[in-house]
Amino acid sequence: MLQTFFRNKNISKKLKLRLKCTIIDTTYASETWILRKRDRKQINIFETKVYRRILGPVYDNEKENLRILTNKEIHAMVKKPTIT
């Protein structure tokens, strides 16, 4: 269901990012959980994958084709640090 939602072109990126923050961030915001290094890495990988799906590919003028965003570009666009 969420894959269909995140791929829907009729829904704004702003709303998709808000929903992502609501669902994913609150899921992992529990103060009682102890996150190991491996857990944090898996959460960051999943979060980056969701951001890439929401933000989509970008057009590269130099190579004249579409490309996926790098991790630095994603975090600069959403202005949110990774889970540490």
Shape: globular
Helical content, roughly? Answer: 55-70%
Strand content: 5-15%
Number of domains: 1
Oligomerization category of the chains in this entry: single chain
Task: Please state how the strands of the largest beta sheet are arranged side by side.
Answer: 1-2
Sheet with the most strands, sense and barrel status: 2 strands, antiparallel
Give the topology:
Blueprint: H1 2-7, H2 13-27, H3 37-55, E1 58-60, E2 65-67, H4 71-78
Antiparallel strand pairs: 1-2
Helix pairs in contact: 2-3
What keyword list fits this structure?
84 residues, mainly alpha, two-stranded antiparallel sheet, 4 helices, 2 strands, 7% strand, globular
Question: Can you give a write-up of this model?
Answer:
The chain is mainly alpha-helical. The chain has one domain. The protein has 4 helices and 2 strands, in the order αααββα. It has helices spanning 2-7, 13-27, 37-55, 71-78, and strands spanning 58-60, 65-67. Strands 1-2 form a two-stranded antiparallel ribbon. A hairpin with a 4-residue loop joins strand 1 and strand 2. Helix 2 packs antiparallel against helix 3 (37-55). The protein is globular. The N and C termini lie far apart (29 Å). The mean pLDDT is 77.
Short description:
The chain has helices at residues 2-7, 13-27, 37-55, 71-78; strands at 58-60, 65-67.
